[in-house]
Amino acid sequence: MDNKPNVFRRELVDVHGVPLFWSMAEEWSQVESFEARSDDLLISTYPKSGTTWVSEILDLIYNNGDVEKCKRDAIYNRVPFMELIIPGIINGTEQLKNMQSPRLVKTHLPVQLLPSSFWKNDCKMIYVARNAKDVAVSYYYFYQMAKMHPEPGTWEEFLDKFMDGKVSFGSWYDHVKGWWEKKKDYRILYLFYEDMKEDPKCSLHKLLQFLEKDLPEETVDKILYHSSFNVMKKNPSANYTTMNTAEMDHSVSPFMRKGISGDWKNQFTVAQYEKFEEDYAKKMKGSTLQFRSEI
Q1: Among 18, 107, 113, 212, who pairs with 170 as Cys (CB 3.0-4.6 Å)?
Q2: Where are the beta strands (DSSP E) in 108-232?
């Protein structure tokens, strides 16, 4: 127990060119050899792109809108974070091994690091992408409260790291583009956070269609209500307040902070915005991916 604090605030370690938590790097063989099942549903995102939100929606869909059933455990136990391994604290691959099918599996891995069993078994996958500026801001606050990350430094310093892909899970640009390209060949539903915010019902129907599932309209409305930001923020099984303060300190910044689109305007200076946009244009050149920075 005494040595627990030293698992936190350690430098990231390079795994095949992608910076990851040191403990993931040490146990990488467990992640790489993970056995997906053909009826697994993979939820993939770059961090801070609506992962918990879409996970809650999908757990509600899988349980036909039974809200009480979805309070059976914290979201990180209902939808295990596959590659998250912290000695003595959590092991996502082990959690999943012990789960009954059909499983909901969460990952933040870029496409090239995903265990090959997911491709081999042709698993259905849902990818959620959010605009880079909002992700950068949200990630900065998350780095402050979630202590598995290295110290974030100042906002200016963190933004530079983000643009250089020197943050946990690497480059946002490579991540969103990699999954975008992959959807041509695999069963991947690619959603945008901004669209989900603007028209949650339309996005929910897309999910249902992708899962080939029919739900009565009143169940759809119930799911929309219980997966709304304000309701989830108050729900201990969805808002991560059940985590130990040593791991996540909500007094620094709540896990569910604002959940809006366009918050970057409150954080970026004009100079930062101009530098970011110039860099963005270079890194996204040639991609057909289009993002909205506000709605």
Answers
A1: 18
A2: 124-129, 188-192
DSSP per position, 59-117: HHHHTTT-TTGGGSS-HHHHS-BTT-EETTTEEHHHHHHTSPSSPEEEE---GGGS-HH
Global pTM exceeds 0.90: yes
Return the pLDDT at 1: 41
Give residue 173's identity as a one-letter amino acid code.
Y
**Backbone φ, ψ for residue 89 (5° rounding):** -120, -55
Q: Say which residue the tokens 């995903």 belong to.
A: 114
CA 284 – CA 262 distance, rounded (Å): 20
User: Quick one: which H or E segment has residue 29?
Assistant: helix 28-32
- What is the Cα–Cα distance from 248 to 250, expressed in whole angstroms? 6
Rounded alpha-carbon distances, angstroms, from residue 193 to 52, 61, 132, 135: 12, 18, 11, 10
Domain ranges of the chain: 17-283
Q: Kindly list the catalytic residues.
A: 108
pLDDT per position as a tens digit, 189-226: 999 999 999 999 999 999 999 999 999 999 999 999 99
Give the CATH H-level superfamily of domain 17-283: P-loop containing nucleotide triphosphate hydrolases (3.40.50.300)
